[in-house]
Amino acid sequence: MKRLLVVAAAALSLVAQADTYPTSKPVTLVVPFTAGGPTDRVARDLAEAMRKPLGGATVVVDNAAGAGGSIGANKVAKAAPDGYTLLLHHIAMATMPTLVRNIPFKVDSDFEYLGMINDVPMTLIGKPGLPANNYKELSTWIQANKDKINLGNAGVGSASHLCGLLFQNAIQVDMTTVPYKGTAPAMTDLIGGQIDLMCDQTTNTTSQIEGKKVKAFAVTTNKRLTTPALKDLPTMQEAGLKGFEVTIWHGLYAPKGTPPDILAKLNGALKAALKDPEFIKKQEGLGAVVVTDKRVEPAEHKKFVAAEIAKWSPVIKAAGVYAD
Ligand code: ASP
To answer: Ligand 1 mean position to 176 CA, how many Å?
Structure first.
């Protein structure tokens, strides 16, 4: 009897929690990379856009950076499933399971999927002093400097790591990779000339390319982009790298076991944010495409991530690009 009462009280408290959510404290949106980088940029814009649909709740961004995005993901996988800790992550949710051995969480069973946010192309960029002004000249420079090239990335398992590995594999050149906790600090070093090259999302590179702080050589999508600062860049495929295509996408997650009412509220707030003209304008200006298709539904988001795992696993294995 006593046990029944305890169970009933717990159930009541969950209902009460869902009714009042999210008013008891700020919602923390965990970003698994450093502040000022591309994932952080999407998160800060989204946090602002979700505020109103969440009834004016405060949404704070927590940069739990490191280990290519697995520290932040693990933090959310182990957080209380109460809707107050969420994760914004990118394609690494689908590539980490193959790219990195022994990640401390399970992508398919440790999270509730809340919906996808956007698709973001990457760009291949170089330090401002690099003596090459287009991909052809870059290719010649790489061949002549093979042993001394430093390629920055956001750590093992990150999107820049994946793109850089595929690039090295495609051109059959091994570069020295320099890992950071996000591409914001890597960008600072690229601008300063401490590293030579990097692949990064347009949400971080567009303004640097526009301001001529870095040199841009190619985009990683199948088609050229329409963003003014990027529209003249060739695709990697046009540049001669057959089949090279990487598009980064971002999605929103909650810890497994978050109550269904809270998940529904969060999905509703995400959908509203994705229709917010301000959010759309900001994202489009950075070359990102806000999701309007069925991937905004949690079940479709989960299906999409599973399909991406199936898509990338053989590519990563064939390229022989694992990390421990
Ligand atoms: N662009 C980074 C990556 O390579 C992540 C970041 O700093 O947002 O995954």
So the answer is: 18
